[in-house]
């Protein structure tokens, strides 16, 4: 492609609203433009890289027996009502005039197809996939293409007759994902993940570490334990039970609101305090009790409660329900609430919590004696330096970006949509499903996050839009024009993808800067000075290493440089 003709609108300035490097560089290097919040136009340079990522994905999906589909992005709303996903917060964008929704993922359509056409165990297993546009009602699209309202996903679905079959399909995907991300040159790791709103029995995410990532992961540098903060556990022990258990006592605590204030006021350690966190679950009031300053993890809470929506309770309602404000609520004698507690509180006694009366707390609470609750669950958020569940070494908490997610769905969607098959005994069984996604834009943006310098993008060979950036330094110099154009044709003939800077109105310095910004792995510079010695210059973008090569050896040397 000749740059004099190409549409690659580079920018000199860093756009003000872009904080992440990948976002800044994708704008500056002319890869994309934002049309509206979370919606991007991918320009030719970006789309070439995306096509390369998609081809790698396609090859690895085909290698495990995947069959490529193209499913509709427009879905009837009723399909999503049937599975109960129509009203999941922040998920679905819809077209009201026609009762259509824009599919955020495709479990529903897959199960619909399976319901019609999978009849017997002999029709299974199946691996179905597509690479297609998804739409999501993301509340805060930011970080550039990492979180769009419209984005391209490779999504695949496995259909199996047995749970062992699902395990095998899942493992095949895990291995394919490792190959895909390795081939894309990404420095990634894997974590155990929450099954979240999707329902399911096991899941893993593929991540890159990044300070601006929106996911938080817990890692053990010693034994390799790795989990999303949504499910991560630590070996922090439960509270010890005191030998003596005393009668309840009311304590006057004027104007004391927070756990820290209460600990200071009563001169006790915060682990003696049981903190009340209130929610409504499916419209019903819910109290969750935590130890002192332990932070409640909403993903764990949601998982513990099973289906249903968890929301905060409005302050006015709280007062009407309990007779007290947030800071004075506690589990003893509390009516109208379902109560659950963090597992560290199991068997705890001598605890202090709200008295359900403003400015009062209750002391000597014994969880085995005074509190009626539904159960103890792991509800707390792990903090850095806590002991690892598997090896007791200090854990590390990091931010990360999710590249892909694999998921043992089970039978949630096949049951909802009646996708059954006849097993070997002629008995109808729901198809056992798995679901697996990779964000195409995220591959590109994560590669740029991991591979750039102060001058611009540093593409690797696998994803680079072009193999080579050929620069004719001065187009007013006849010999430069002749040699560079000759090289351009010759390289293209042997299948090298060349971006040729043949612009006449741009200074050599400007061309060099653009080449570094756009970041193709190899640059070839044809300039007056080199040509005096019948030589051209080859520069490796990543290391900056330069070599002068005689013109007659240029093609061979370039091929070699591209290959390694
Ligand atoms: P996140 O937690 O980041 O919102 P998710 O759990 O909703 O991701 P999945 O539903 O598992 O994501 O989708 C599969 C893949 O699609 C993700 O691993 C990610 O690479 C990509 N993806 C999801 N949401 C977006 C988005 N809004 N913009 C770009 N890519 C996305
Ligand atoms: Mg999401």
Textual characterization of the structure:
- With 564 residues, the protein is an alpha+beta fold.
- It has three domains: 21-232 and 397-448, Bira Bifunctional Protein, Domain 2 (BirA Bifunctional Protein, domain 2, 2-Layer Sandwich), CATH 3.30.930.10; 249-377, YbaK protein (Alpha-Beta Complex), CATH 3.90.960; 468-563, Anticodon-binding domain (Rossmann fold, 3-Layer(aba) Sandwich).
- It contains 14 helices and 31 strands.
- The strands form eight sheets. Strands 3, 7, 8, 9, 10, 11, 12, 21 and 24 form a nine-stranded mixed sheet that branches. Strands 16-14-15-17-20 form a five-stranded mixed sheet. It has a five-stranded mixed sheet with strand order 28-27-29-30-31, with helices on both faces.
- β27, α11 and β28 (498-501) form a beta-alpha-beta unit.
- The model has no long low-confidence stretch (mean pLDDT 95).
- Bound molecules: adenosine-5'-triphosphate and magnesium ion.
- Adenosine-5'-triphosphate binds at residues 105, 136, 138, 147-148, 151, 153, 402-405, 437-439, 441-442.
Structural class: alpha+beta
What overall geometry do the principal axes of the alpha carbons give? elongated
User: In CATH, what is the homologous superfamily of the largest domain?
Assistant: Bira Bifunctional Protein, Domain 2
Helix coverage percent: 25-40%
Q: In the CATH classification, which architecture of the largest domain applies?
A: 2-Layer Sandwich
In this structure, how is the largest beta sheet organized? 9 strands, mixed
Provide the gyration radius in Å: 30 Å
Number of domains: 3
Task: Please give the CATH class of the largest domain.
Answer: Alpha Beta
Strand content: 25-35%
Number of strands: 31
User: Which cofactor or ligand species appear?
Assistant: adenosine-5'-triphosphate, magnesium ion
CATH topology of the largest domain: BirA Bifunctional Protein, domain 2
- Number of helices in the DSSP assignment: 14
């Amino acid at each position: 492609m000749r740059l004099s003709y190409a549409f690659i609108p580079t920018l000199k300035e860093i756009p003000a609203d872009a904080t992440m490097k990948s976002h800044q560089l994708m704008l500056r290097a002319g890869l994309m433009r934002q049309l509206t919040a979370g919606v991007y136009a991918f320009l030719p340079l970006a789309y070439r890289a995306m096509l390369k990522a998609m081809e790698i994905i396609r090859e690895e999906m085909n290698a495990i027996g995947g069959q490529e589909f193209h499913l509709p992005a427009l879905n009837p709303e009723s399909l999503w009502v049937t599975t109960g996903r129509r009203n999941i917060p922040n998920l679905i964008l819809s077209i009201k005039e026609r009762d259509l929704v824009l599919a955020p993922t495709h479990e529903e359509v897959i199960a619909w197809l399976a319901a019609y056409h999978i009849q017997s165990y002999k029709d299974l297993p199946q691996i179905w996939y597509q690479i297609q546009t998804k739409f999501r009602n993301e509340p805060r699209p930011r970080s550039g293409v990492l979180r769009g309202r419209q984005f391209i996903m490779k999504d695949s679905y496995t259909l199996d007759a047995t749970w062992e079959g699902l395990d095998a399909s899942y493992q095949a995907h895990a291995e394919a994902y490792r190959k895909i991300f390795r081939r894309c040159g990404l420095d990634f790791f894997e974590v155990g993940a929450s099954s979240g709103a999707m329902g399911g029995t096991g899941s893993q995410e593929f991540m890159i570490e990044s300070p601006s990532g929106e996911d938080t992961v817990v890692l053990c540098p010693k034994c390799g334990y790795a989990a999303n903060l949504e499910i991560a556990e630590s070996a922090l022990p439960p509270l010890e039970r005191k030998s003596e258990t005393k009668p309840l006592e009311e304590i006057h605590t004027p104007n004391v609101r927070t756990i820290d204030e209460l600990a200071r006021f009563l001169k006790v350690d915060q682990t003696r305090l049981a903190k009340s966190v209130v929610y409504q679950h499916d419209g019903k009031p819910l109290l969750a009790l935590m130890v002192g300053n332990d932070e409640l993890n909403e993903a764990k809470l949601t998982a513990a409660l099973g289906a249903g929506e968890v929301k905060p309770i409005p302050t006015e309602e709280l007062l009407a329900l309990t007779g007290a404000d947030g800071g004075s609520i506690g589990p003893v004698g509390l009516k109208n609430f379902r109560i659950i507690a963090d597992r560290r509180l199991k068997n705890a006694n001598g605890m202090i919590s709200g008295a359900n009366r403003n400015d009062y707390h209750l002391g000597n609470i014994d969880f085995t004696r005074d509190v009626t609750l539904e159960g103890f669950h792991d509800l707390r958020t792990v903090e850095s330096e806590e002991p690892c569940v598997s090896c007791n070494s200090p854990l590390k908490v990091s931010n990360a970006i999710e590249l892909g997610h694999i998921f043992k769905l089970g039978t949630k969607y096949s049951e909802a949509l009646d996708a059954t098959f006849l097993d070997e005994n002629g008995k109808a069984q729901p198809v056992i499903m798995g679901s697996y996604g990779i964000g195409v834009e995220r591959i590109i943006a994560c590669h740029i996050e991991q591979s750039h310098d102060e001058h611009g993008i540093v593409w690797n060979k696998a994803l680079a839009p072009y193999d080579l950036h050929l620069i004719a330094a001065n187009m007013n110099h006849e010999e430069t024009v002749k040699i560079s154009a000759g090289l351009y044709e010759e390289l293209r003939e042997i299948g090298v993808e060349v971006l040729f800077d043949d612009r006449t109105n741009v200074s050599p310095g400007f061309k060099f800067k653009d080449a570094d910004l756009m970041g193709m792995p190899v640059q070839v510079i044809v300039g007056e000075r080199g040509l005096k010695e019948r030589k051209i210059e080859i520069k490796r973008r990543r290391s900056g290493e330069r070599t002068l090569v005689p013109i007659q050896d240029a093609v061979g040397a370039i091929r070699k440089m591209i290959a390694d």
